[in-house]
Amino acid sequence: MAANSKDPNIQLLVFNGNKKGFRVWTQKFVQHLKPLTTAKIGQWLANQTSRPEPKIKFEDWLSGEPPVVHRANESEQRWYSHYRSEQVQEIRSLLSKVLPDAFTQQLKDAFGEDQPVHLLWAAVEKRYGESNVNTVKTLVAHLISTANNDFPNLEVLFC
Fold first, then answer.
1. What does the alpha-carbon distance between residue 102 and residue 126 come to, in Å, rounded to a whole number?
2. Taken in order 46, 39, 108, 6, is the CA torsion positive or negative?
3. What does the alpha-carbon distance between residue 122 and residue 129 come to, in Å, rounded to a whole number?
4. What is the DSSP string of 19-42?
5. Tens digits of per-residue pLDDT, 50-70?
6. C-alpha gyration radius of the chain
7. Cα dist. 104→21, 33, 94 in Å?
8. Spatial CA neighbour of 62 closest among 116, 16, 112, 9
């Protein structure tokens, strides 16, 4: 887990396994990925020799397999393949550092290196996220309890 990491940014990103904090943690995780994309483009701008511009954002890997960029130039195609591989490895490494150790081990046992990152992310969301059914049940129960309450005036509902 990231608690062993010396990087203070990673330590701040460690997820404690509490389902109630998962949505906030998810937002923090995605916000952590965005600067990685910016840094990758910055590296490209600094060394524009023959490498093509990185087209895929790190956070795109969480929602599905980003499309492969097809180029006629074989050298550019190799660079795009390298970018894809590098991003996948970076996200996998980051997940292994910030998720609880027990869950990380389950992921390693269930998913091989060839499994797409978005399937790993879906497993994380399934384990820690609030399902839509639970959310709807909670909201309906709250609505019913609100309707059954005795209010002195309408203003109390909006405070």
1. 15
2. positive
3. 10
4. GGGHHHHHHHHHHHHHHHHHHHHH
5. 778 888 899 999 988 888 877
6. 21
7. 18, 19, 11
8. 116
